[in-house]
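pinging the channel bc i need a second pair of eyes. not urgent but kinda urgent?? the chain im working w is below, pasted from the shared doc
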Amino acid sequence: MDFSSQIASQLNAVTILPEGIVTVTLLLVLIGDLIFGRKSANALAYLSVIGLFSAVVALFYGWNNTEITSFLGAFTADNLSIVFRAIVALSTAITILMSIAYIENTGTSLAEFIGIMLTATLGGMLLCGASELVMVFVSLEMLSISSYLMTGYMKRDPRSNEAALKYLLIGAASSAIFLYGSSLLYGLSGGLTNINEIGAVLQAGEGLESLGLAIALVFMIAGIAFKISAVPFHQWTPDVYEGSPTPVVAFLSVGSKAAGFAIAIRLLVTVFEPVTQQWHFIFTALAILSMVLGNVVALAQTSMKRMLAYSSIGQAGFVMIGLVASTTAGYSSIIFYLFIYLFMNLGAFACVILFSLRTGTDKISDYAGLYQKDPLLTLGLSLCLLSLGGIPPLAGFFGKIYIFWAGWQAGLYSLVLVALVTSVISIYYYIRVVKMMVVKEPHEMSEVVKNYPSVRWNMSGMRPIQISLIVLTIATSLIGILSNPVVNVANQSVTSSRVLEASLTQASANIDSTMDNQRKNIALR
């Protein structure tokens, strides 16, 4: 009895109650589909949404929990992981609401699609708190394989098959590279797999300057950069975004990216703390390349989904500024921006889904004059795109201000200047779409909009999209102005994290040293 109670205390499975709720929901969806068939698809979709929101509530009740480790230290349920897990769960819940009509319109099984998406969500949530190399890899593969399946879900669509094949080949290569980096860490640490223990051993002086640690750093960053769509590991993004079902793209652009940044923070500040300068340099280069290429190439796109793909690459570059800053404000700005990005990016994709359902196209030129036929869709897409561009007083403006301020405070002046210039560039291609919808005269209306069907929200699956679009548009408009609670939660999650404690102390000392040097230079002048 004592042995079993000891094992139970070490497992501490209560910490993954949210993941348990998602798992139970997944099983109920699969069993319900087997028993009741396709006639229960809509009910199972709403059941999955209820399960995901229940998981978010469970995460809320786990806030400031004293027992944060579980499964013999393989999973850490601290406040930092809670916020990232909440972003992943919320993105899936909203995506499922947006996908009901879309999947039904294709004639494929909705319940199977939801089952795969819940599996990806479970992998992403576990990845956000994984503290052991084996669990990191298993969670990463659970997320990746489910994403490959969702990408190729439209089996009759050649574009979907092509996107899935490209995603699979490049993803398999990135997973192999990431696994090789993990194996190098395993060897360098003397056979350890817990990332906190590996970090402690490496900091003790074993292999600090070794070639193996540098190679492991490069390989693991390559795997992470693939997940967050950072240049030059972005090649899959435009093709996958264009060929995949639009709800899948919405999930990949938010949920998968949030999980990627969560594990990046956890690995970099623990395992690779001895080579902080090196990974700062690498992520600075990745951020500049992502911001420049993502926003410049987006200017030439004619497809809405490809434009949003390159926009996603550019947004990843902005978020990396907070990662390079490595301060309390830097990490907090990552969380705050990803939370805002959840609403404005999913809002944009909700509009793209609606337009494609009614017209069957996603060309930007086909949106000309849309405001005359569908004012709600035009308003929602305009606000979400302007927010992505950082136009005040929308939420995206406050998110970018916070990230740029954190970078400037950390002394990343050149990086912030590049971000400002590329952010201005991004405004052009966002406003181009808004202009296409709003400014065009009736005689300049596209043929697609001229034949636009009457707006009917009482059709199957359309009401959830309408509700999602309204909620996302309101959140995008107001959450920046009412952002103080979100900022407080982000700050608290960072300052209370034991994982970030050493990194924040070192960053604070570096900033103080830089300021002292600046004062001395001013005094000498």
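so The beta strands are 69-70, 75-76. and The chain has one domain: 3-524. — does that match what u expected or am i reading it wrong
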